[in-house]
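Risk register update: the risk of archive-format incompatibility is retired. Evidence:
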Amino acid sequence: MDSARPRQSDNQIGLNVGGKIYLTTRDTLTRYPNSFFAIMLDSDIPSDRDAHGNYLIDRDSKIFRHVMNFMRCGELVLPRGFSEFDLLEREADFFSLEALEVALREAAGMLVGIAVGTGSTRSTYMITREALMKEKESFFTDMLDGGKPFPRDTQGNYVISRNNSLFHHVVDYLVRGGILNDITSSELKQLRKEAKYFRLQMLEQHIQSVNRQTDL
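Archived output:
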C-alpha cells in the first residue's frame, strides 16, 4: 500500500486540471456514459495521478469549471458576458461530452456578439436576441432582421462605432430593465444621446425620470 497517497472515498474523485484541483464524485463524472471521464474511471488502463492521488488532466483549468458545472447540473449555465464559446466547445469535444456540445451550439445561436467602439478601444458584448429585441423598431431590431447588410468583424460580431464607455449602461437596460448605476450627470446626458441613436424610447423616458429626480 502506498502510504504517501491519501485514500479517497470510493465516490469522491480528485482531478488535477492544469494545476488546479477539482473535487467531485464518481456519480458526476459518469453521468455521461461515453465521456472521457466515464471511460477513464471504468478503464483497466492506469491513468496518471499526482502525489495526492488526483487524476492529472492537462487542459485549461479556468474553462474547466464550466465543464464541471455542466456535468453537475446537467444543463449549461454560463456567467453573463461569457464569450469563449469556441474554447469551451473544444473542451467539450476533447472530453467527449456530446450533450455539452449541443447545448453550446444552441446557446451560441441565441447570443449575439456586438463589438462597440473604434479601433483598439472596442469592447465585445454577448447579448441574447431576446434582450436586443426588447423594444420594437429599435436600432437593434433593424440590425437583426437582416433587411440590409450590417458591418461585422472577423469573429462575426456586429460592429457599432459608438461610445463603448457608455454602452454597458445600454446593455444593463436591455438585460435587466431601467437600471442605471454608477453614472454621473454628464454621462447621463451622453447616455440619452445614445438612447436616441439606438431608438430606445423606454430608456430615454427612464433617463428623463432620473434627471427629474436628480433636479429635486
